[in-house]
Give the backbone structure.
Amino acid sequence: MESWVFRCLAPSIITVSPMIRRTGTSIFTVYEAASQEGWVFIMYRAIDSFPRWRSYFYFITLIFFLAWLVKNVFIAVIIETFAEIRVQFQQMWGSRSSTTSTATTQMFHEDASGGWQLVAVDVNKPHGRAPACLQKLMRSSVFHMFILSMVAVDVIVAASNYHKDEDHKLTNDEFYLAEVAFTVLFDLEALLKIWCLGFTGYISSSLHKFESLLVVGTTLHIYPDLYHSQFTYFQVLRVVRLIKISPALEDFVYKIFGPGKKLGSLVVFTASLLIVMSAISLQMFCFVEDLDRFTTFPRAFMSMFQILTQEGWVDVMDQTLVAVGQMWAPVVAIYFILYHLFATLILLSLFVAVILDNLELDEDLKKLKQLKQSEANADTKEKLPLRLRIFEKFPNRPQMVKISKLPSDFTVPRIRESFMKQFIDRQQQDPSCLFRRLPSASSSSCDHSKRSAIEDNKYIDQKLRKSVFSIRARNLIEKETTVNKILRACTRQRMLSGSFEGQPTKERSILSVQHHIRQERRSLRHGSTSQRISRGKSLETLTQDHSSTVRYRNAQREDSEIKMIQEKKEQAEMKRKVQEEELRENHPYFDKPLFIVGREHRFRNFCRMIVRARFNVSKTDPNTGAVNSTKYHQLYDLLGLVTYLDWVMIVVTICSCISMMFESPFTRVMHVPTLQIGEYVFVIFMSIELNLKIMADGLFFTPTAVIRDFGGVMDIFIYLVSLIFLCWLPNNVPPESGAQLLMMLRCLRPLRIFKLVPQMRKVVREVLKGFKEIFLVSILLLTLMLVFATFGVQLFAGKLAKCNDPHISSKEDCHGIFRINVSISKNLNLKLRPGEKKPGFWVPRVWANPRNFNFDNVGNAMLALFEVLSLKGWVEVRDVIIHRVGPIHGIYIHVFVFLGCMIGLTLFVGVVIANFNENKGTALLTVDQRRWEDLKSRLKIAQPLHLPPRPENGGFRAKMYDITQHPFFKRGIAVLVLAQSVLLSVKWDEGDLVTFPLATMSVVFTFIFVLEVTMKLIAMSPAGYWQSRRNRYDLLVTSLGVIWIVLHFALQNAYTYMMGTCVIVFRFFTICGKHVTLKMLLLTVVVSMYKSFFIIVGMFLLLLCYAFAGVVLFGTVKYGENINRHANFSTAGKAITVLFRIVTGEDWNKIMHDCMVQAPFCTPDKHRYWETDCGNYAGALIYFCSFYVIIAYIMLNLLVAIIVENFSLFYSTEEDQLLSYNDLRHFQIIWNMVDDKREGVIPTSRVKFLLRLLRGRLEVDLDKDKLLFKHMCYEMERLHNGGDVTFHDVLSMLSYRSVDIRKSLQLEELLAREQLEYTIEEEVAKQTIRMWLKKCLKRIRAKQQQSCSIILSLRESQQQDLRRLLNPPSIETTVPSDDTNAHNQDNPTQPEQNSGLQTLLSPTLSDRSGYRQDSADRPQRKLGQWRLPAGRTSVKSMVCKMNPVSDEASSGSEVKKWWTRQLTVESDESGDDLIDI
């Protein structure tokens, strides 16, 4: 289709027969259409040759993807690259935060409220000779305001100038006299400043230099011979001085143009590029015959500049291609395309990057603004809205309770606090006594005795509420602080004592590095045992520790400020709730819908139930509280987006809009009953909706009223307009009447979707929040247009008019009639009169301006320059000015286009992107914080590999798995996909002989892809193959290919060939996922489409509103230059296509001028607007200009902002990434090993196994970082209550542990994360201490049980020995038994053990150290039994080793004392006592 269209446009350029020329022609045509220049005329020709739907679908999708998405990726690439280069050239360009210089007279000053403002400083003290009174006058604000007001008056007078006749004398011109007076006034101002400041002091200021230049230029300008000359620039440049009126505008201008090195260097580079390319083109094409665009250097420069602006660049290229011939046409086409590609995609993107960089803040200033913004947000919304505070103006009238039952029948209700406050006896309260009872207020009891009664009451109330928890909270804080100090001191001591020495050096993972950074930071912050740790350190190390301590104390102070801001925000919300509760208690009509329905009335509760009913998105487990992941969670999220009632109204509104699309000037809703059904349905449903919402939430004077914001006002407005129109239904609607205005207001109905969908409201808020900066940019552009418009009126007023007869050159001769010849088809066979060579007709001569523009007054000049600013029609303006005024005046329009295009429009793009980032909270983010946000967004997109593991056995499936996963196999499949795509380089026509062989080759490729899918199915198994989305897409395309093969050999018609081409196109998209860079760009486009869905829907809704209004305003306008059978407003569908064309900027100004046609060039009608073919001048001006600004300048730039934001997610170097692509890939592989069921979730118990498998930068060394391992495992258990964890849960935990949260996280997120980590550390410490105590208790209990068992056995044996000692028989030596002898032979150390046992059991009188050594030689206990240190000894052998009989009394008493001591010690070490401790 593309090649055919291009051949119709330029049949003499490229022939059609060769395959290469067809392919080149198609690529050329697609690029031409993607440049949005001339694409609509290609589409119209395609519509005449192919079905309308096919042409619309092809070209609209081409514009959307290539011109709006892919093209903007270049802007994102340039911005990201420029940001990286900007860091390298920071010293050359200077700091962004340098807002003052030596030449400025203003500086930033912090006021009492903590804000920043520009204030004047007296840096240039008067050094002149003027009197003190004049110096004081010169420095006064009254003098400056007077001068600025005079400048404003001068601008207004200059803007009021208009074209006069040539015989008008200059001395009688009131505008000239006013200019002379203003010039004298400003000259006197300059002389006064020089007198007061001295010439040196005056000229030292850059502002005074600019003023002196204006003084000299305007003084020369008032000379009569130089009045209408180039010196007019100095007069119109006075408007620049008005920037000083607004400090915000002045600051904005300085941020954009103040750091002039970058912008100035880029302007010089652009000018140099134009000069070089113009010289090259001059040398290449100056010899070509019949080509006048490159005959001289000025012509070559204008042609290359025209290509730079994209306006008519296709005409320049086509004329050159025709002139050079067919041989050199492809080379010349490549030359122009490369230059256009570089100029439009790279050079213009550089301007956007520079402007964004100028709007960027310094890193330290970002942190300061984050803190200030948080404080400002916490300071807001303390008061109730004005519609609720109106109840405070009325006296309190609380309702009394009417008792209809006995008091014992019901419980006593809670007494209102506002009611009890009235009965507090403040005089009888003794604050000092009460404060003495409070543990935290004893020191300040005397101060409160002097307070007023109200302040005392509030303070007492607060203390009474806080005193209950003060002691417990303080004790808890002390415990937590003590435990933290001990743990961090131990960690610090272990790191400093070199406990890790002696181990092999190994590169530490990022998890380990960040863990040690946090431990060191917290140990310094809490000041844990610094004196004990610092022993033995050098002076240098102590100095470094002191600086680190100071730095972390500053961070702690920052934490306290953040917490104070959060507390302030909570107090503001609490205060607001208290105020609302008091109004609810004391005013009976508060929170009553329409002051009729009660607060808890059954009917209101029923309405609330209907209004607030919605689909429950989060299905939580009642036992664990965890959210159950469902298979269709995206569908559930969509259903739970709005309430059921809003879903019904969305459907009704869409149906009503569809009904309105069938309306036209010839099918009017007033006369077609079928279309009225849609009106009745919409009004009835909206009436029910509003009544339910009003009864549930109130209309205006309730907290959740329907009219509480602009959306509620818009709902009521749309409802009233629809209701009035339905009740009226006028039969006759005159043009430009109230009835037609009502029909236009009815076209706002699609905007209801903005109110019903929360994401659409968010889009509107994002646009409106940046209204200030957009307004400032608009003022700058209007100022630029005003300067050039005033200058254009001075130079070109009345000089652009010309007689329509080309043979007449003077206005005096332009009268009468003349004949115009026309060209017609030869098939008409018209008979010509004698002497006539061509048919024609007679027309009157008219002296008139060009049809679309003139410079006769400032209004027309501003309109012409606004069209030029959109880069549409400026070539015609340039040609007319050069032809009718002079070639030198072509500089005027080129300078304006360069400033407007390169700076003005790119400034609009930059401001919209900056506002988008600011509204999303990314404008004030530092580099580390932005990387963290990009990492979080990247992790949300990351998914498990869904790749089944390799089969364990080494059989056939394992070999297939190895083959399909080999890199060469994947590259071979990619080459085959490219080879199949090459088959589409020739059109598959049913009657062409080449088509069948190409289709046969495609069949062969398809069988190869079927073999690929079969091999993967065998290797992975069908279940494993189906888990990957890419495999599903491959299977779908392959299945379509098999179906196409069957249909192709069965039918072989045009439809089968079309299906075959579609299958090849679908197959081509699979190659994007086989390369990292292509995958990154594809993800950028796909994610941008997903995130910009609601912006695109918002654009379509605005376009639909304008389409409905265009049908009412211009539905019957006569055909003109661009209003024709393809482009008109006769129906809503055609109006949508015209407006889409205007969005791309394709000749939108010519369509606007066609819709401005007025009588006598049309047929008017005063009674029915559908009977006239005239346009509406004012309506067309407002309609088209507002639509182009809103859509082209704001909404399309939001798409650019989204693409730039999403591109930073995937485009980042390894050193910029917090987690690289290899890290994520490694985690995906490890997860794939652990998640054997491929469900995306694993039990919490498997997290430990997963963490041990990680290697590289995510590795956790259990020898060095065992504590970190415990923290990570416990975090998973705590956050998920011991249940299952998902892929993103573990990845999110690793991401938090792998970054420096102090640098990467924002304030609120940082506090929440640090609190979580503190809690985890404390819980892990408690668990560690608890486990250690359990082990200790276990060992102690084992010893106790052993002691108890041996004590019982020894007591019995000792009693027997004591009896024998007290009643001694004859002592005889006992012979050991055989068992004992055998045992002693096996144990040669038995005698030593027996001697040790004697000392252990009964020390003698001679052994005084027996008791002292009992602790070292105490018997061991195990499992409740005593066991001796070694061996067993009989009682008789022990008795034989006792002392003689003479010492029996003393030895018996000594043994009793010793056993008493042993029993006492053992009883003191009982397990119960240890448990109690």
